[in-house]
Amino acid sequence: MKTRFLIVILIFSLNTSLFGQSDYFLGKWTYCEMPSDSKTKELFNLGMDCIKQNYAIGAANNIFQDLIKKDKTFCDAYFFAGYTFRLSNMNKEAVVMYYMADSLSQNKSIEFKQNLATTSMLVGKIDLSRKKFKEITTFFPESPEGYYGIALTSTVIGDIDYGLENINIAEKKYATENKDVYFLKAVLLTLNNKHKEAIYYYEKVKSKFSKDDNFNGNYALSLYEVGFIANDEQMLKRATKHYEKVKDKSALTEYAKSKFEKK
Questions:
Q1: 149 and 118 Cβ atoms separated by less than 8 Å
Q2: Across the chain, which distance is largest between two alpha carbons, in Å?
Q3: Where are the alpha helices (DSSP H) in 35-144?
Q4: What's the pLDDT tens digit per position in 65-111?
Q5: Which of 13, 131, 198, 256 is the most exposed place for a label (fewest CB within 10 A)?
Q6: Burial 44-71 (b: 16+ CB within 10 A, else e)
Q7: 249: DSSP letter
Q8: Contact present, 192 and 231 (Cβ < 8 Å)
Q9: Which domain of life is it from (predicted)?
């Protein structure tokens, strides 16, 4: 499978993860010192209330940009300006603000690095995304998210062995079973031609991803490869069944399509 839609789906799990977000989004504390005047605090709290209620996001963005104009060292204002851009699907603008926030915070914030890394992937800045995910593993080594993110970037960069190394670390660090991790691991195993191992992980996540093209396309390929070698007609039929569930076959690699399309 081509990886654009896989990235979007699995980035969503990072963006909604509570491991890194913690209570920071409640607005009760900041990483950089807030200007001491009461007006700044009042505006900051108003912007945070808009975010928490998912209301007037454009106005909240204006608030945080005004705070930046007042104090260009206030990293949290940059971050929430980026965050409100992201909520408005203005991802390129969000990356700029996230980058400033992360630069000013001196590696104190996992939230800044996480959101910069994930949004960078959405706009195609894979090298920046990889760099920030690696920084998470350096400065926040107990978080699984840096390792998960490195593995996700591997589907684009192509260093699949490195991706598998990191997804295995992430799998161990998550406190509970994580189907997004299993799905990404399955795809990496398929890309690494470890199809029998991949099938095991696809089976673990099929209840969640059974209607997803990435799932059905990659699962079909692994089923085909194992079934062909074993001369297992039932497995080959299952492979065809999952291939037929792929709604957008243009997203499949030519190699995968060649196993199912008659010429």
A1: yes
A2: 75
A3: 38-53, 57-70, 75-87, 91-105, 110-122, 126-139
A4: 999 999 999 999 999 999 999 999 999 999 999 999 999 999 999 99
A5: 131
A6: beebbebbeeeebbeebbebbbebbeee
A7: G
A8: no
A9: Bacteria
State the Cα–Cα distance between residues 84 and 217, nearest whole angstrom: 35
Q: pLDDT tens for residues 193-252?
A: 999 999 999 999 999 999 999 899 999 999 999 999 999 999 999 999 999 999 988 888
Spatial contact of 77 and 44, defined as CB atoms under 8 Å apart: yes
How many helices (H) and strands (E) in the chain?
A: 15, 0
Of residues 257, 180, 179, 181, the one with CA closest to residue 218: 257
Tokens of 56: 């007037």
Domain layout of the chain by residue ranges: 182-263
Q: What is the dihedral of CA 51, 52, 56, 62, to 10 degrees?
A: -30
